Amino acid sequence: MWLYVVAGIIFIFIVLKSWLGNRGPNPFAVDTRRPPGPVVFDKAMKRKVIKNVFSPEKVPENLDAIVIGSGIGGQGVAAILARAGKRVLVLEQLGKLGGCCHTFNEKGYEFDVGIHYIGQLNKESPFRILVDQLTDGQLQWSLMDNPFDVVVLGDPKNGRRYNMRTGAEAYTDELKKAFPGEEKAIENFMKLVKKVSFRIPDMGILKMLPFPISRFLCNTGLVNWLSPFFRYATRSVTEVVSEFTKNKELQTVLSYIFGTYGVFPHKASFSLHAVLIDHFLYGSWYPTGGASEITYHLVPTIVKAGGAVLSRATVEQILVNGDKRACGVSVRGKGMDPMNIFAPIVITDAGIFNTYEKLLPPEIKSMPEIRSQLGMLQHGIGGFSLFVGLKGNKEELNLPASNFIYIPDTDLQKLEKNYYNASAEDAPQHLPMLYISSPSAKDPIHEERCPGKSTLTALTFTPYEWFEEWKNKKVQKRGQDYESVKNAFAEAMLETTIQLFPQIKDKIDCYTSGSPLTNEHYLGASRGEFYGAEHDVARMSPETALAIRPETPIKGLYLTGQDLVVCGFAGALNAAVICASEILGRNLFIDLMMLRRRILQNEAKKAE
User: Fold this and answer.
1) 285 with 194: CB under 8 angstroms?
2) Is the pTM of this model over 0.70?
């Protein structure tokens, strides 16, 4: 008996020492928010920040860290380290910074690439506190319409529509109204969603505890016993949902959010599904001024500490010394010979497949530890995007600031099978789902930047293999056969979009599309994925969560971004916190919670 007590005390001591360690500076010691300034419309001013092109003289001296990739996982960790006094260089292969946070222009229309909606950004939420601290409170957010999501089943013109409303009570009540007789099933489902999603921090805990402790928790099965999140992580969405109701239509509606992580419900982890339902439950936001505002307000935090964020800087290899320690990168600027840049820490936001398979020296990438980690993951499904430019503002076109998720049938496995078993030529007639939204309608100041213009974005999934034969062709010069296949998907998506929004039919000014090869070229997605490594039940298992940690088998090399935790803006930014925690040797989530408590106390005093 006393042996168990002593062992328990030692275990708690080790955990507390790990979680409350104080080896590095606290980047969240001070609240740096200030009143937000006006949104900058001057394109030249914005270009200086989001198109700061690499050149050797722009590389700071005495770097503390180099970050590969400027997605939110990369910029986020760089900004956190900068707040801790570290000098960080962020290198981006594209001509624009931001990864999936960047925007592009086509014939005067502005389109976002990967920021469609973000939850948990109410003023007092821990996540909002984090975002505000990294941008000094300058990045502003606009609340989307209520309902934030509209699910359309069946015929796109006259299909059944289900509104996903803001707030747990409103969300649940709306489902009950739509499905009389299923009230108890809906209540119980939502209770489980809350129970499981509340424990998403358990994934971070498993990645941040000392490896021997995390391994003990996994090997003994204690992690499943202690954590509802991990208990449901390896159960599929279909399996869990079917335990609550036999109503196929309700099952589909409860499963609709699978499009936000790219895995069909029978292969998807219920835990991730629950987290994403809860993430949007209390409102959905969009960056005021467009997605490029994220980078525009993150970069100054990095620069202020002596760092730099540079575009058109292709990292060709991670440099590893004789001790098998990462010590820098070999980078090539446009029209330049490669140059070596050295730093004691290298952080990669390029994705685990790109990092391990393309950026490491041959003798390092063959290490058993590297191969073992890659063997636990699969590439996610490729993504296809349609961008539509419309004449008229959102009022004239009656465009809501809501997302529409179109699913043609309640038999999701049949939809998936018919689509993926089809040829690339026939597949456009079997689209299994379509996400459609209007970025311009979500941004209240879009009209000031692009008067008389509106935009729609539609997304679906397409296997990389359907386009792989053209992968070695130059972008925008892949030939007529490629364009023909790509246009077939674009036209099918556009036809469905017009059926859902018939008012736009005569207002279409232009449209363009992007295949998985487009994502590979512009976003560095290794096989054109939207969401990195596949978010299936294997990915979410405690064993995979244990193995894929911020520290890699190569000393000095760290992972950040959506392959470390989960997909999306919030997932990648939380990965940045976990990565920075490992580098600084302290639990930054605790530091954030302490800062949040001080902020709320100060605001309460002001209100007295």
Assistant:
1) no
2) yes
Helix (H, G, I), strand (E, B) or coil at 511: strand
For residue 301, give Cα distances in angstroms to 43, 138, 596. Answer: 20, 11, 20
Question: Residue 512 and residue 307: Cα distance in Å, rounded?
Answer: 36
Domains and CATH numbers, the chain: 2-99+290-377+538-607 (3.50.50.60)
In this prediction, residue 14 carries a pLDDT of 45
Q: Please, are residues 240 and 232 in contact by the beta-carbon 8 Å criterion?
A: yes
Average pLDDT over residues 518-537: 94
513 contact partners, CB below 8 Å, separation of at least 6: 384, 385, 386, 387, 486, 487, 489, 490, 493
CA Rg value for the chain: 24
* Dihedral (Cα; 226, 227, 233, 235), 10-degree rounding: 60
| Tens-place pLDDT, residues 131-187 | 999 999 999 999 999 999 999 999 998 899 999 999 999 999 999 999 999 999 999
**pLDDT score, position 23:** 73
Query: By three-state DSSP, how is residue 515 classified?
Result: coil
**Cα separation, 348 vs 480, whole angstroms:** 36
The CA-CA-CA angle for residues 231, 149, 408, to 5°, reads 85
Q: Average pLDDT of the chain?
A: 94
pLDDT score recorded for residue 21: 52
